[in-house]
Design goal:
The chain is mainly alpha-helical. The protein has 30 helices and seven strands.
Length: about 750
């Protein structure tokens, strides 16, 4: 019966993939790839190097993280050697070795697995199904696979260009600037490139549809494994999963207030992939340091930590914060240096430095400045008058030094951020609780939250990348909160525990619904004063209700002394319960409608960013040009009506077309980000850091000569010209004389240079 409950997420998985247009053949091939080349090798390596009393779903969750890390090592070796087509040999070797070596055959079976209640598997299966439905019925279904004209999200096309590039070389070149080495946390895209290569599936289908579901499964099961490992109680696992993926924040504000930041972001593969890897790294680290895992487990610990560093810049700082706080706690408690924890901290510092020098190019142009995140909230511009593009310099964001109204607004916004992360507050309360404050694992988890909050408050990223700190830390907050509640009710009789936990959660949910319905202003705020009031009013209602509840609790204690000692547990359960109604029923209904074909079609604007002719021409190029051919194109700027400035996020040829270009959208390059704010121009509108390439591109399209085309061919490896008359003037007659016209559709002409 325990195994049958997992048929529900299996059926949901098929439903969400088929509902978003994935064919049965692709579903079968990708499932076989992920099960045979990621999950199985990962679980076998996990059981060999870090054996423990885990159920098979927990082995799968952590095993996915190990398998992804192992896969990337093989991808790097095979791609560097130019033998990408044989990459399937890498995972197959693990299966062969573990089948052939007698001592390793035991790893095919779970060793000493605990027997957990049926409710554990049933609730996890239900939560996993709900998570798949929520995300695939939302963002995934709203992101069409590039085939026809439309406003495709530029970041996804940019990631598609990296996926294509990582099938060619390591370290990768910048697809938009052929010949230049890319510095970016591209490990998630390397996984996608491996998947497309091994499964033999179009990279567009892998990126826009297939990769997300297994990452969701990995995160859900890894969080469950970490929660039970830390607390030892089965019910903390589904609670932590729900707080991580379903009810991620407290939402008592009707208009403005609080903050949502998710560990799972479909439009950011690096965030979803990096968070999943980090949770697995945390489970392995805590197991090796504080839960008695064997010394050989450090082999996969170091592998997973290194992969975490290349997945997202927010990942390792959290691991480092957790390790640092745990080391400080052990030093104070034991009055001697905790060398294992200190050694891990030193290793993490080394990994951080190495990643900054190699795969952290997206952090260029990111100064340390207090409260830079406030620029993203409503009211900032109206209050401060600050419309300038943030530039290096200054220790605090503009407008918060003198003006009292602005300061009041900022305090209200920041307090609402803290209140909306009520789960974090519960996690911190674990340090004041006798049963959990003596466990270095709790200090480790809280250390990740401190690091995340510091990153959010101090880092001032041009694209508000500091918000990813909060999403990346949410699983650790959820695990710590569950452990804290478990510690608060431990020692009480089972009926009392159930009443406190269930009653507190239900009371919190009812309170959140009541405040959202009756404790908000009537109309949407417009002026700065109205915004401040809209943020503050629900929190005042919450504070008043909690004060009344506190008085009532003291009265109850006087009347019934047997409830003493449960007040903190009840308060924490109420705090967690406040987040339960954060997703309205309409969101679930819309998600289901989107997967059953009843949702409205995504409208195509009258003047889309990309026309069907452009998309089809890029796909023709992807099929017909050589894998290492370079293309000269005039599609570096997005075609936005009534915006004369160039938005340098055009990735038509490098993304949809899958080929390196002489010069396409340069906005996300390290060189462009480093110039942010110098001339009060956003990095998206900055001129290219390679003006010589822009000049060559312009001349090749508008005034080509035989010498120029020969120079492009000889010095840059250019073999094709992708001419888009919608993007600018094209010397069509001259190019017809100097090159071979190979494709024409609408305003697109594709030429191949002559040998």
């Amino acid at each position: 019966m325990g195994a049958l409950v997992w048929l529900l997420p299996a059926a949901t998985l098929y439903w969400v993939l088929a509902g978003t247009g994935v064919g049965n053949g692709d579903i079968l091939r990708y499932s076989a790839y992920f099960a045979g080349c990621v999950v199985l090798p990962g679980v076998l390596l996990l059981r060999a190097f870090a054996p423990g009393r885990r159920t098979w779903p927990e082995d799968v969750g952590t095993g996915i993280v190990v398998g992804l890390s192992y896969e990337l090592l093989g991808w790097a070796l095979f791609t560097a050697a130019g033998t990408q087509q044989w990459l399937v040999v890498w995972p197959a070797a693990v299966l062969v070795v573990f089948a052939a070596v007698p001592r390793l055959r035991r790893c095919w079976r779970a060793q000493d697995a605990p027997r957990l209640p049926l409710a554990w598997g049933a609730t996890l299966a239900l939560l996993l199904s709900a998570t798949l439905l929520l995300y695939y019925g939302g963002t995934v279904s709203a992101s069409p696979v590039p085939k026809y004209g439309g406003d495709y999200y530029q970041d996804m096309l940019w990631h598609l260009s990296i996926v294509h590039e990582l099938g060619r070389s390591v370290p990768p070149e910048i697809p938009q600037v052929a010949g230049e080495t890319m510095q970016y946390h591209w490990f998630a895209d390397a996984h996608l490139a491996s998947a497309a290569q091994i499964a033999g599936i179009d990279p567009r289908i892998v990126l826009f549809r297939l990769w997300f579901a297994p990452i969701i499964i990995g995160l859900v099961l890894a969080v469950a494994a970490l929660a039970r490992q830390v607390s030892g109680a089965w019910w903390t696992a589904p609670l932590a999963v729900a707080l991580t993926t379903i009810v991620q924040r407290l939402a008592i504000w009707k208009f403005v207030g609080g903050l949502g930041a998710s560990p799972l972001v479909f439009l950011s593969p690096s965030q979803s992939f990096g968070t999943t890897i980090s949770v697995g790294a945390a489970a392995l680290l805590i197991g090796a340091l504080y839960r008695g895992a064997p010394r050989r487990s450090w082999v996969i610990v170091l592998l997973v930590v290194c992969v975490s560093a290349g997945s997202k810049p927010t990942a390792v700082p959290l691991l480092l914060g957790g390790t640092g706080l745990a080391a400080l706690f052990l030093l104070v408690r034991n009055r001697r240096i905790p060398w294992p924890t200190v050694g891990v901290g030193v290793a993490l510092v080394g990994v951080t430095v190495a990643s900054m020098l190699t795969v952290a190019g997206s952090t260029a142009g990111t100064p340390l400045r207090l409260f830079g995140a406030l620029r993203a909230f409503p009211g900032y511009t109206a209050l401060t008058g600050d419309t300038a593009v943030p530039a290096p310099g200054g220790w605090i964001v503009e407008g918060l030094r003198d003006d009292q109204q602005t300061l009041t607004w900022a305090i209200a916004i920041l307090v609402s951020v803290v209140v909306s992360r009520a789960v974090w507050v519960v996690a911190f309360l674990g340090l004041a609780q006798r049963r959990t404050r003596t466990d270095p694992a709790q200090w480790w988890l809280v250390g990740t939250l401190i690091a995340a909050m510091l990153g959010f408050l101090v880092v001032d990223h041009p694209g508000f990348g500091q918000f990813y700190f909060l999403g990346s830390a949410l699983p650790f907050a959820a695990v710590a909160a569950g452990y804290t509640i478990h510690g608060a009710v431990t020692g009480r009789r089972r009926p009392a525990r159930r009443v406190i936990i269930a009653g507190g959660l239900l009371a919190g949910a009812a309170l959140a619904l009541a405040i959202k319905a009756f404790g908000n202003i009537d109309a949407r705020p417009v002026s700065p004063a109205e915004i401040t009031r809209a943020v503050t009013e629900p929190m005042l209602w919450l504070a008043a209700t909690l004060a009344v509840g506190l008085v009532g609790w003291f009265v109850l204690r006087a009347v019934r002394p047997q409830v003493r000692g449960l007040g903190l547990a009840l308060l924490m359960c109420v705090a967690v319960g406040l987040a339960l109604p954060s997703r309205p029923w309409l969101e679930w209904r819309n998600a289901a409608d989107a997967l059953t074909g009843e949702a409205p079609q995504i409208p195509v604007p009258a003047v889309p960013l990309f026309t069907t002719d452009e998309i089809q021409a890029a796909l023709w190029l992807e099929r017909n040009a050589g894998g290492y051919d370079v293309v000269v194109t005039n599609t570096a700027c997005l075609s936005r009506p009534r915006r004369p400035a160039c938005d340098a996020r055009g990735y038509l040829v490098s993304g949809v077309g899958g080929h390196r270009t002489l010069m396409e959208g340069w906005a996300y390059t390290q060189q462009s980000l480093a110039n942010q704010g110098g001339t009060n121009v956003n990095y998206r509108q900055l001129p290219s850091p390679w003006p010589d390439r822009v000049e060559l591109t312009t001349k090749a399209l508008t005034a080509p000569t035989p010498d120029l085309l020969e120079t492009l061919r000889r010095d840059y490896g250019v073999r094709w010209v992708f001419a888009d008359k919608r993007a600018g003037t094209v010397a069509e007659r001259t190019l017809d004389r100097l090159a071979d016209r190979r494709y024409t559709r609408g305003q697109i002409i594709i030429y191949k240079l002559r040998d």
